[in-house]
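I am sending you the entry underneath: sequence plus fold tokens. Let me know what the token row says about the fold:
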Amino acid sequence: MHKEFLMGNEAIALGALAAGVNVVCGYPGTPSSEVLETVAARRTPATYVEWSVNEKAALEMAAGVAYSGGRALVTMKQVGLNVASDPLMSLEYVGVKGGLVVLSADDPGPISSQTEQDTRTFARFSKVPCFDPSSAAEAYQMIQEAFELSEKYGTPVFLRPTTRVCHGYASIDVKDVNEYHVNTPSGFEKDSSRWVIFPRLSFANHAKIEARNEKLQDEFSDNALNSILEINGSSRIGFAAGGISFAYALEELTSICTTDDRTVRDLADQFGGFGLLKVGTPFPFPEKLALSFLEGLDAVLVFEELDPVIERELTYICGKYGLKTRICGKLSHHTAPSGENTRDSVREAACKFIKEFSADSANIPAEPTTSAVSQGTETSPSDTVQAPKLPVRPPVLCAGCPHRASFYAVKKAMKGKKAFFGGDIGCYTLGNAAPLDMVDTCLCMGAGVNIAQGIGCIDPETVCFAFVGDSTFFASAITGVVNAVYNQANMTLIILDNSTTAMTGHQPHPGTGKTLMGDVVNMIDPVRILEAIGVTEVVKVNPLDLEQSVETVKRVSALPGVKAIIFKYPCIALSKPTMHCEIDADSCVDCRTCINEIGCPALVIRDGAVDIDTALCTGCGLCSQVCPMGCISLA
């Protein structure tokens, strides 16, 4: 064993390697991406790693590994779980032979996601056991236990870290390479009665799954990942928490007894301390442990992020066993119904909860005395100095981003026409911001293609466009294009090809000609794919050539059927700039067309005049083509 200072995602990766994982695959998505990248950097020769084209493909690949007795880890973020849900629901009924862990990283906030969906709720829905780590160190241990549980019960298992666990750091005791578990797959054994899913098999396995999960309730009640802590002795009130919220609760409840708030401190002393239930396996829920925690308590406040999973389970247990313990949390409005928890929000809610409850009353009031935490708003405790609010920094496309030029070319070409611009998930979602305003809809990856088809179906007079990135094209847009071609839609597909998966950290994809294993392979050409599908016209153009780009959009969009334009230029992070633009101050008339038209962050106002921030400018030259006075040039 040795110590390393690790990010949570790095700890998860090293935990998987220590568990003898044979294959790791996934699709990039913050906050999960670093797990797979760390495996790639630290793997042993016995471990294969890949970026798959999407989460569905990754899980299906991992299923084949697990069918063969190998250990497989699949990584994704919570919205990626939607893509993987089709094989996952059936895989739980079929089962596995080797260990299979599905890492679904949740993003409370959300910080970089479309939704705040909770993987714990999906675990109950899919009947898949779930581990919920509260720290980087616990995540390192949990993923090893998850592999063992998966093999023991022949089931996929969820690991659900949240953003603050994924991106938090800690000094962790990790195994040396010679201490890693060595897993030697036995190979796939043909057995259609086991591996081929038929209704009769599903019916029989459903009963087995329910029985297994009942057994896991008891097993998890005796697992150290779930525990009851007494903070400064026992009490008539308690707290329950899971994930990162447990870490916050443990720290804040420990310090509450020494708070400057005399009312809270006196009540804490009067109560004799607090009980704290730690829930590390939210499904199946450790019912027996929770029952022993609830007995003798008058009230419990639950801290958790996103859905009231623990709160509902404790409420159910109270009803099942006739307990009069009052369970409070999101459903009772004692904690916020959405967003992240913080140390401050946990302390604030705990102090208010303690004040509401007195040693002379048997029940907590039906409603909190004040709004414990307003939805989406955090308030600092009364005994601390409130930090100033951070300035609002709306996200924008990078200076020199080729997507800005692509959007502007389409906008200029469609000026005066009734047009629809279907957006997608990626850096280019930022094309919605003024002054571009070129993203009319954004639903999920690849959806813009068939949304454009639907808009055009209702209003044939609308010129319909669908924007997708090169990585998204491979991940989920191809099937949408097939649907549009087959059903004779009239639309223009715009592929914004910057030769990387930029939004999530510049991961390779099938169009880059590189794999995560370091192999150089044949690039899969979107042009040939589109032509094979039956797209009537496919044109590739450099978006930084504004005049040619505008003329291409005008010509191609006027054609009937499904056609495509590929705006191809590398992301600025792939090739560092060697030049920048400058303004001839004597020629500039301060019309500010450059700023008002393209909104590049390198264009600034200094001393009342337009200027270029050379620290940001990449020399793309788009502004020089937009300037009506021709006073901007490359330096």
Remarks:
- The chain has a mean pLDDT of 88.
- Residues 581-634 form a domain with the Alpha-Beta Plaits fold (CATH 3.30.70.20).
- The first strand starts at residue 2 and ends at 7.
